[in-house]
Fold:
Amino acid sequence: MSRAFNFSAGPAMLPDEVLERARAEMLDYRGTGMSVMEMSHRGSTFMEIAARAEADLRELMGIGEDYAVLFLQGGATSQFAMVPLNLLGDKATADYINTGQWSKKAIAEGRRYCEVRVAASTEASGFTTCPGPEALDLNPQAAYVHYTPNETIGGVEFPYVPETGEVPLVADMSSTILSRPVDVSRFGLIYAGAQKNIGPAGLTLVVVRRDLIREPRAGTPTMFAYRTHADAGSMYNTPPTYAWYLAGLVFQWLKAQGGLEAMAEINRRKAEKLYAAIDGSDFYHNPVDPACRSWMNVPFTLADPGLDATFLREAEAAGLKTLKGHRSVGGMRASLYNAMPEAGVDALVAFMADFERRHG
Ligand SMILES: *Cc1c(COP(=O)(O)O)cnc(C)c1O
Structure:
């Protein structure tokens, strides 16, 4: 068996230790004679797995009791609708910060339900930067401010958390959650699809301040109301039990690594190594403003795009997989989520130097 270094933007790598533990527990979870995916979600065994996962996540992120943690389905994409449906209340307008492809999708969905004010946009830069705090034109009457702390496609990450005063801040943290500590109390709501930095696809995490869980807009489907899931402990219907269990194993793994401070240290180092390799050569290029470069998703291009296919083929043969850039950006993209070992980045950097020597 050989494990590749998989640089996919999502679904992405999971830690070997987590997969091995899942394998060991696959056929007979702790003497129950069944796999976690075969169990009732209402049985005591799964209830314990679920509670432990939530408790570990709360500890890792420092989530206070004034926040609910919801384990949902539907992906981050469903949150583009759930957020306005539940948070607009009697307001008709919300602020959105536009920093790239994922912001744009959230904005397009938001427009179905309210007047979207774009509080800042970096589109003129080709989405290669993030707006500074002084560039945010915020409406104090907005129902909420939505932003994307890390744009997975553009590789742009906010180095700060926007200050929005009394207006709740909503963050699509799909590709940056758990990569470093965050002060959860700054946010009204945080959501993330699991398949980047949490666990397998099929689970969507929502952390929401309890006072924001209120009557949704008239006509909202029961399954699209936060209240439904908060009142039922995320078990109004059958939750994604196996994904929830695997996320729990990832949370235990993160705690064993030393928590989010330790992960941040490793993630910063991994990203710095790759950016140094890119910046130190005329052969590779990353277009993003250095102040807003993502630790998690690093797009880069070759001076000669005619070499892209060769680069990808040779990288694949060297065990460095899924480096092809997003179709809207081209070139390459290396995603360096928590489960990507530092050795994977070292191997990529060495491969890039060797490739440049042979083709540069
Ligand atoms: C991947 C991603 C999404 C989409 O997530 P799904 O779970 O596939 O709906 C949304 N926002 C960001 C920032 C992402 O990286």
In short: The first strand starts at residue 5 and ends at 6. The mean pLDDT is 97. The two ends are 34 Å apart (CA to CA). The longest helix spans residues 259-279.
